């Protein structure tokens, strides 16, 4: 799923992708999000402190995180 947002007047595209989790542990599905300032270009994935892609329990949570962090990243 691709969402276009505006960050400090700049267009940013978020690509939210499902990531399968352990079927024996709830939640069984997570989401990862990447961002780019150029439409149809590969984006940069938000990583956690361990360097692995940061996992979110819903697409909404992923978008909210991106909206919070991108003003600092794109500064």
Query: Looking at the structure, what is the overall shape?
Result: elongated
Q: Identify low-pLDDT runs.
A: none
**Total individual domains:** 1
Tell me how many strands there are: 4
Task: Give the amount of beta strand, in percent.
Answer: 35-45%
Strand order of the largest sheet: 1-2-3-4
Q: What structural class should be given to the helix and strand makeup?
A: alpha+beta
- Could you state the order of secondary-structure elements as H and E? EEEEH
Q: What is the radius of gyration computed over CA atoms, rounded to a whole number of angstroms?
A: 13 Å
Number of helices: 1
**Average pLDDT value?**
93
| N-to-C span | 25 Å
Helix fraction by DSSP (H/I, runs of at least 4): 10-25%
Largest sheet: 4 strands, antiparallel
Q: How would you characterize the overall build of this protein?
A:
- The protein is α+β, with helices and mostly antiparallel strands and 75 residues long.
- It has one domain (2-74).
- 21% of the residues lie in helices and 36% in strands.
- It has a 4-stranded antiparallel beta sheet, with helices on one face.
- The protein is elongated and about 45 Å long.
């Amino acid at each position: 799923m691709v969402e276009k947002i505006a960050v400090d007047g700049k267009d940013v595209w978020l690509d939210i992708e499902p990531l399968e989790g352990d079927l024996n542990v709830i939640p069984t599905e997570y989401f990862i999000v990447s961002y780019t300032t150029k439409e149809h270009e590969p984006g940069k994935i938000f990583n956690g402190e361990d360097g692995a892609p940061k996992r979110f329990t819903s697409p909404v949570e992923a978008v909210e995180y991106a909206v919070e962090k991108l003003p600092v990243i794109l500064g």
